[in-house]
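Task: complex structure prediction.
Instruction: return structure tokens for all chains below.
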Amino acid sequence: MNRFILSQKGNCLPGSSVRFLIWLTTLVLVLGMTSLAHAAGPGPGPSASETSLLAAHTEAHELVRLAYAEDQVSQASQQKGRSQQQAEKTGGEEPSPGSDAWDDETGSIGSIPDPLEPVNRAFFVFNDRMYFWFFKPVGNGYKMVVPELGRICIRNFFTNLIMPIRAISCLLQGKFEGFGIELVRCVVNSTVGFLGFQDVAREALGFQIQDEDLGQAFAFYGIGPGCYLNLPFLGASSLRDTAGWVGELYLNPLDYMVSDFWPNAGFRTFDMLNKTSMRIGEYEALKKAALDPYVAMRDAYYQYRLNQIEK
Amino acid sequence: MGFSGNCPEVVVNGKRVVMGISFEDTMGSVEAGMGMNRWIAGVVFFFAISMLGTVSMAGEPTEAIRKTTDQILAVLTDPAMKGPDKESERARQIRKAVDERFDWEEMSMRTLARHWKDRTQPERSEFIDLFGSLLERTYLDKVESYSGEKVLYVDEKTEGDYGLVTVKIITHQQTEIEVQYRLKKKGSNWLVYDISIEGVSLVNNYRKQFNSILARSSYNELVEKLRTKLEGKE
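Output:
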């Protein structure tokens, strides 16, 4: 799936003078989810309802570690089995490599701890309904009215607008070239590119957009994802990336330019709708291909972020 | 990216290291000139071998991917194959091209990971059949929506029998999607055993799902789920 299906967070809730409110809501939400998770019970953990979030968290880590260790062992034995198999198949003429160099790559990527799974799953269902009942039909209608080129221009405009988020995130990671590119891109696109509707910097100058955000900047300083969160409306996220998203509210010029609640919310919804109209079908494809769409989404988000962070 | 140790770097580093040692060694040696020459010859030889290695290896996995992609695109862009009535014929031809390139067994093995070794031979072939069909269907759905997107072959890395080919797809909405094919050489053929889209590996993603299902229920239930998924509408 491409980046849009996963990076839904970023543009949908209002900000500005109400940023404090959003802070509060997020806090309440996270705390609420935590207590809900308590109520839901920690699952197969040892000491039923007594388990604290922290314990559940470390337990998840431990599970991941154990699974990893087990994976390594089984892989080693599997390798043996495989080389035997291969030897049989090829009549022993071509022995398999001693160590499967890239097995590591596909074999041992961990998974993100998910102590809040029951709540996350509930919000996953909520978002699923929201998508099929609201965003998809409205997005389809919008798609019929506004031609693709127009929607690309609108997307470019919003992308150009949030340049400070990318630029600051580059700076925080010491990516000075990326910082410079973002500045030049913004200057060029805001002028020659008609307020950013046209991405001239990429088309004419080959200055690619720097795919950076605060969550990635936090990761640069060694902050792990914490745990998986599936937020209502915002979709897949993690504790770290949600914190990054909240921080981005302070870096988003939209919140300074349009500071009243409803106009701000309107702009954000419009941006989200515009983006949704361009990725209708992706979520459906994920659902169709997955045996457990929730797990598929969680892992896709985790892998996708790892890949972004590495870059 | 996860592959920092690619060939040219290794060669450069290797050369530097060799040169460094050569200096220290030959300075104190009586046959300094001779040693130096031998070292240089060695370095050149080493360099040439590595270059030869990369040159002859380079392209093979990419060519494999390109061949299959071109076959699929030929089917999809053939005017004679257009239209809904030709859909099954289209699917048949694409499936043929995909089957030649994709190693369903390797994919199944890597996805089931530690649960693979507990399976009996009939169970394994049944699983390969089911999982392969699901993957194939997913892949077919993806390519069926093709409408002239550009495909760029941007990078290739090989390491022995393993290859990694990076492809960029430029969509109509001016976004780039990075697709990576992981290949393994079997006999004289390079076969795909994993696809990553924007860093999300298919094998890993399915493994997580299967592990989650297997942790809650049984292998039989997993197979049942696979079967219902495949029989599901569409």
